[in-house]
Amino acid sequence: MKAIPLLLSLLAVAGMSYWQKSEFSTQLQPDLKKQVLQVLHDSQVADPRVTLTYLDAEIHGSVSNLEERELIAEDIDQLPGIRLTEEGNYLRSRGYLEIKRNGPLTEVSGEIHSADFATADAIARSATKTLTKSDFIDSPHGLSSPALAQAVQAILLPAGGRTIRINALSQNEQLIHLSGCATPQMQKQWEGLLEGLDGTRVELYDLQMYPSIYHFPDYLPHSVLPVESQSILRSALLDSQIFFETGSAEIPPAEEPKLNALARSITSAGTTIRYVLGGHTDATGGEKENAALSQARAQSVLDQLIQKGLPAAQFEIVSFGASAAGKSLDGPESDRRVEILLK
Fold first, then answer.
1. What average pLDDT does the segment 143-149 reach?
2. Whole-number pLDDT of residue 276
């Protein structure tokens, strides 16, 4: 008879255990899962997913960077009743690579997958690098593409400071953002190189456009002059811009005094200094017509300087075409000119 109460007690304990387990799986565990998901949603995790094995959480999704990945894990691990180990953190960081050129120096920084470290290192071999590598980073998907490496080299090659940032958007899509100095010709070339890359979006709206590399703020002339002398000469050249009538490459008589002043300034600076004669037009003609007119205007100025005894070897004529370089001046007539720049 003693066995009957014992059996009833065992059945009661088993029934209570079953009831508690049922309550955990149907009420408590779903509520805990909702709390974890809420943290992921509040942290703007892309494609969030949560799996709970009793109280052990496993989280999936995509975040902006490694720091954010760690902060989210800490927030979840602090939830009452939840345990999140490193093995359960499957959050992926969207990697990036940023290549910044400033004068002769190139710096590379970014967060990339461990397997792509050598590839990123090779894109800018002589650069100073600050790269973070991790197995939890999804690198930009085109990082190993030879076409991307070629495009990066082409963008960094010309003079001028600029930055290339390559962001991973997903496993099959990347965003390339360019900023810094460029000319219209450079922009056109870069667009052709980058838009041919699979799964690539390109942003160029932060480029600062100039008529030529000689207009870049950080352009260093090859001609060696003391800083003070260079500043004086630049000012004299700026005051000696030659303006033209619409559609004409003939120098107006009113510009003759400026030609004489220009010849004197160049003679005083010496024969070792090199110059660029750059022709501009307004926007009334077509691209080819404006390029030809710009060239003709620069040639007209060069011919006059040669007649005044200056050696042709000191000058290079360049067509700037219809540019916005005259936007700091007044009216469209400001673009119908030849400017003289240090080379």
1. 85
2. 95
pLDDT tier at 207, thresholds 50, 70, 90: very high
- Which pLDDT band holds residue 16 (cuts at 50, 70, 90)? very low
91, 92, 111, 138, 320 from 66: Cα distances, Å? 9, 8, 8, 11, 46
Structure tokens at 82: 């939840």
- Burial per residue of 289-318, b for 16 or more beta-carbon CB atoms within 10 angstroms, e otherwise: ebbbbbbbbbbbbbebbeeeebeeebbbbb
- The burial of 19, by beta-carbon neighbours within 10 Å (0-12 exposed, 13-18 middle, 19 or more buried), is given as exposed
Beta pairing, strands 89-94 & 56-63? parallel
Strand bridging mode 137-138 / 105-113: unpaired
Residue 284 pLDDT greater than 90, yes or no:
no
Secondary structure element (H or E) that encloses residue 141, with its range: none
Residues 6 or more apart in contact with residue 135 via CB below 8 angstroms: 113, 114
**Beta-sheet pairing, 275-281 with 315-322:** parallel
| 78 neighbors 122 (Cβ within 8 angstroms) | no
Q: How far apart are the first and last CA of the chain?
A: 112
- Give the predicted TM-score (pTM) of the model: 0.76
Predicted pLDDT at 127: 77
- Give yes or no for a contact between 316 and 274, defined as CB atoms under 8 angstroms apart: yes
| Cα torsion angle, 40, 41, 45, 46, sign | positive
HSE, side-chain direction, 13 A CA sphere, residue 245: 6
In contact, 43 and 72? CB cutoff 8 Å = yes
Residue type, 271: T
Cβ–Cβ under 8 Å, residues 112 and 139: yes
316 pLDDT above the threshold of 60? yes
More confident residue, 70 or 149: 70
